[in-house]
Write a structure and sequence with these properties.
mainly beta, nine-stranded antiparallel beta barrel, four-stranded mixed beta sheet, 3 helices, elongated
Length: 395
């Protein structure tokens, strides 16, 4: 077997050589583009050279106080030109919502739910002589405060924390890791190295924690023993401490600040007839589609649609009805188009048949009385019968 070990003497059978991974030599025939990732204020987060047709690699998600990162504004796969990609954010609301997912570096409230009341882990008690813990029989219990709830969401806090900023924590990893006070970055959630004490408070050194979404616990391991976050009460005093058993009096619930839901923007869509008469007015949410009224009617015309598209509305819009003029009705036998069938129509058709005159399209259509597609002397006879008020054959 080949083995590695430690010796008190400098090795004489060889030497240590370190190796590093070298960058891939660029293809001199390839085209490269610069992809720059910038923050909301234009600050460059990273810049990289990307081979044409390849994808850029996004940096770690940036953070912005009071906002939630919401992705990048531009696709950076299949890069075919220089590209600037900007971070987008959603403004945080005053509402904190339950979550079982941890994003490292984001702010969270750590709650312990007991019989429908959520007690928050306090990172700093401004009104106490000792801002970080209660010393009860040499056990350093952390402060806690009841959350003000709106349904399942937290909207405030009472008791040992005048403001939710005294209840904010940040996790270093998606599973938990170091839990840092959101009020003082030099304070960390800590429990004593001995399982004989229930210590749990913000200290200058921290423990490594694991959040289990399955059984709703937050624990660290001390001397091979798991130590769980648990709510305690001592008379009228509410506290947070550490226990070696899975808590049975409640469970841990994390809360994250939700994004502000922007008020929707509405636009006015007005449907008008050909003469400007308003057919319908509708308020349409931005990006949505208006609903057209029933097809309007105009004498002598056929409605054929609307003059502009009214899907994906992004501005106030006027939509006007479009029409196509109907062809005038043709009176059988009215060759001259004066609305009367008489001898003059017969004479005009006879002149046409003898190549002594011409007829326009309307005259030709009126002359084909039997509608067989052929204009001949029989049509002339039928026109004379109409002029005399006689019934014409139907076959």
């Amino acid at each position: 077997n080949n083995l590695m070990g430690a010796t008190s003497n400098q090795p004489s059978n060889g030497y240590v050589q370190l190796y590093s991974m070298t960058a891939e030599e660029p293809d001199p025939s390839a085209v490269y583009y610069t992809v720059t990732f910038v923050d909301w204020d234009g600050t460059v987060i990273s810049s990289q050279q990307v081979k044409e047709g390849s994808s850029a690699i996004a940096p770690a998600n940036p953070t912005r106080p009071g906002y939630i990162f919401n992705g990048w504004d531009t696709d950076f796969t299949n890069v075919t030109s220089d590209l600037t990609v900007t971070a987008t954010y959603l403004e945080k609301s005053e509402k904190w919502v339950p979550t079982d997912t941890i994003v490292p570096g984001e702010e969270y409230l750590i709650g312990f739910v007991v019989d429908g009341t959520t007690y928050l882990m306090v990172n700093y008690n401004a009104s106490a002589t000792n801002h970080y813990y209660n010393n009860i029989s040499s056990n350093y219990y952390g402060y806690t405060a009841p959350a003000v709830m709106n349904g399942s969401n937290i909207v405030g806090v009472t008791g040992n924390a005048e403001d939710l900023m005294y209840c904010v924590w940040k996790f270093s990893s998606a599973s938990g890791g170091t839990v840092t006070s959101g009020y003082e970055s030099s304070r960390y959630l800590y429990t004593f190295s001995s399982t004989s004490y229930a210590d749990l408070y913000p200290n200058t050194s921290g423990s490594m924690w694991t959040f289990s979404a399955g059984d709703k616990t937050l624990y660290t391991t001390v001397s091979s023993t798991k130590r769980y976050v648990q709510y305690y009460t001592n008379g009228s005093l509410d506290m947070m401490g550490a226990t070696s058993s899975v808590p049975t009096n409640g469970y841990v619930q994390l809360y994250t600040q939700s994004a502000v839901t922007p008020e929707p923007t509405y636009y006015t869509v007005t449907f008008k007839d050909w003469n400007g008469d308003v057919l319908k007015t509708e308020q349409v949410e931005e990006g949505h589609s208006a609903t057209a009224p029933a097809d309007p009617v105009r004498e002598g015309y056929t409605f054929i649609g609307w003059d502009v598209d009214f899907t994906n509305v992004t501005a106030d819009l006027t939509v006007t009805a479009l029409y196509e003029e109907n062809s005038p009705a043709i009176l059988a036998g009215d060759v001259d188009g004066n609305g009367v069938v008489d001898v003059n129509d017969v004479n005009l058709l006879n002149a046409y048949l003898m190549n002594c005159g011409s007829l326009d399209a309307a005259g030709l259509a009126a002359a084909d009385v039997n509608d067989n597609g052929i204009i001949d002397a029989y049509d002339s006879t039928l026109i004379m019968m109409i002029a005399l008020g006689l019934a014409i054959p139907t076959v």
